[in-house]
User: Which sequence fits this backbone?
């Protein structure tokens, strides 16, 4: 059906060599422009956080009166270190516990045989369709019933359970060669030993990719901490930024310094583990 | 499906003729495997039950109750749904949600697909472009909201500064309902485009290179190649992106709205999920909010089903 346009195209083929080069240049220019659009707001935030109150809105890309005072202010006048610690602690615990539980569940779903396995996997998969905002209210009530509100446990426990990780890990475990564990079983290893000594070490790449992803998602979490905590000592960094912003209104130099501090760990993590993050996004889309 | 697995298993575990003698250990081993599976699965299954499945059911159940403050529940049947039907603010929020979804999803789709196609090319420095385009995704929506509030400020924001420098009047970006919703959409596209770009890129890289070679030898131009090779073969990825972004748009955006516009001005960015949140946690109307939430879930299910039928489904490979 496409024979017609093809015929006309091949007619103009002689000039194709040069056209290819110039279109490549055009695409490169386009790529540079969209990359700049993507980067610009973040760069602007970082440079502005080194400006003073009077120059923060002056519209210059770089600060003329470079200062660290905003950062000093953020850490001395507001318990920002505490916020960062809360975010780090909860995100790290969630990540470790979630990966442990999910890899166990995924191992059973992928490698063990038991009645109702596929139906159970279907049910677990179906929970992916329940988006967090939808169950926010009942989750709040469940957490209140379990006395989890205003505690680290309340920030951590509900965030652990997510079918996404189980799904990706199961997908990975299905691809592992069966001979390994069969040899182990013949040697008399129990299922726990097979999981702990063979499967877990083999899944290091996917576990590290997921770890970064989980840590990132939980560091950036806002709505659940907002609902689940009111205690100042439990404030996570995203909550801290949001309330800081309402308190300090137009003191953009402080607000942007705080925002930079909150974003920096994730940006560093991203630049350090870019490949893993991108890989885990890719696999999530393929399956 | 486990029945399918059993025969093949029997074949491997009972090779010798003495079937009655092998039955005992085989059964014990099978039982042990079941037990192990149960223990491996227990923490996650329990957790998903308590923190996802039960809340989902509870949400629906709550919608038939009037919940006041701490603890007291009163059965009011369809009262909350009747109230919802007559609540103009809710329907306004649904209209805004509809507009938000209808604009955001196609724009995000086209931008991400375009970027995916762009960074699939072997351009000089393509790795750097991919990095730059994905980067906004790793920043929290709270920081994104704060940052764009700064950039879009009517007096001092850099966006208006640039517009004035170019000879235009600046706009009150977050000061008028329509523009503010547009800004929320634009900022969401800015955050999410890199994520879906990577998903499209993965889909594009799955397409065998030989097809493109063949098309090139036939002298097909870029548009013909896209229409006859890329688009049809990319369909599962497109479906995935469409479904994910629609579901996310229907119930998402809460973080960003909180910081960037707080639902304003004049409720212009009060998405349904934001209105529901306000009713629940602002006014303690948990029952009423649950009714609206259930309605939103219903819409979500219908929209997903329609998408599934229209696109004849992306094949969700379940691995077996």
Assistant:
């Amino acid at each position: 059906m496409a024979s017609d346009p093809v015929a006309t195209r091949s007619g103009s083929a002689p000039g194709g060599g040069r056209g290819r080069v110039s279109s490549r240049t055009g695409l490169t220019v386009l790529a540079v422009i969209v990359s700049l659009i993507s980067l610009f707001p973040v760069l602007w935030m970082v440079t502005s956080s080194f400006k003073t109150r009077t120059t923060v809105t002056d519209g210059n890309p770089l600060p003329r009166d470079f200062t660290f005072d905003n950062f000093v202010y953020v850490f001395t006048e507001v318990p920002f270190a505490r916020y960062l610690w809360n975010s780090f602690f909860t995100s790290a615990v969630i990540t470790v516990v979630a990966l442990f539980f999910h890899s166990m569940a995924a191992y059973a779903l992928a490698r063990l045989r038991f009645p109702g396995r596929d139906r159970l996997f279907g049910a677990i998969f179906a929970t992916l369709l329940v988006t967090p905002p939808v169950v926010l209210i009942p989750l709040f009530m469940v957490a209140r019933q379990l006395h989890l509100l205003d505690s680290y446990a309340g920030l951590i426990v509900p965030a652990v359970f997510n079918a996404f990780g189980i799904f990706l890990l199961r997908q990975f475990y299905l691809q592992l060669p069966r001979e390994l564990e069969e040899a182990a079983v013949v040697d008399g290893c129990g299922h726990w030993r097979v999981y702990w000594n063979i499967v877990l070490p083999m899944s290091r790449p996917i576990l590290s990719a997921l770890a970064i992803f989980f840590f990132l998602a939980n560091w950036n979490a806002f709505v659940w901490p907002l609902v689940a905590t009111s205690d100042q000592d439990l404030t996570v960094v995203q909550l801290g930024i949001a309330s800081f912003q309402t308190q300090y209104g137009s003191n953009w130099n402080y607000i942007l310094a705080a925002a930079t501090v909150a974003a920096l760990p994730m940006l560093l993590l991203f630049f350090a583990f870019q490949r893993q993050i991108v890989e885990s996004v890719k696999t999530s889309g393929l399956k | 499906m486990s029945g399918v697995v059993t025969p093949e298993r029997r074949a491997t575990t009972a090779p010798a003729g003495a079937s009655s003698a092998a039955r005992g250990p085989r059964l014990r081993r099978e039982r042990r495997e079941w037990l192990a599976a149960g223990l491996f699965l227990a923490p996650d299954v329990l957790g998903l039950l308590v923190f996802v499945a039960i809340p989902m059911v509870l949400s629906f159940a709550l919608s038939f109750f009037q919940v006041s403050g701490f603890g007291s529940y009163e059965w009011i049947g369809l009262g909350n749904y009747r109230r919802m039907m007559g609540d103009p603010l809710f329907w306004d929020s649904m209209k805004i949600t509809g507009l938000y979804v209808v604009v955001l999803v196609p724009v995000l789709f086209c931008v991400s697909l375009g970027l995916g196609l762009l960074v699939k090319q072997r351009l000089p420095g393509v790795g750097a472009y991919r990095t730059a385009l994905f980067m906004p995704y790793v920043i929290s929506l709270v920081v994104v909201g704060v940052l764009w509030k700064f950039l879009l400020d009517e007096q001092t924001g850099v966006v208006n500064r640039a517009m004035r420098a170019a000879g235009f009047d600046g706009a009150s970006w977050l000061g008028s309902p329509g523009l503010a919703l547009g800004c929320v959409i634009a900022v969401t596209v800015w955050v999410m485009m890199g994520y879906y770009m990577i998903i499209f890129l993965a889909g594009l890289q799955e397409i065998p290179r030989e097809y493109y070679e063949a098309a090139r030898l036939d002298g097909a131009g870029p548009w013909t190649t896209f229409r006859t090779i890329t688009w049809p073969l990319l369909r599962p990825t497109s479906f995935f992106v469409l479904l994910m972004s629609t579901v996310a748009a229907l119930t998402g955006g809460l973080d960003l709205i909180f910081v960037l516009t707080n639902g304003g001005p004049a409720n212009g960015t009060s998405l349904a999920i934001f209105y529901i949140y306000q009713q629940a946690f602002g006014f303690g109307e948990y029952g009423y909010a649950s009714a609206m939430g259930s309605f939103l879930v219903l819409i979500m299910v219908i929209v997903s089903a329609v998408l599934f039928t229209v696109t004849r489904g992306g094949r969700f490979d379940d691995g077996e």
In short: Residues 2-62 of chain B form one domain. The longest helix of chain B spans residues 19-62.
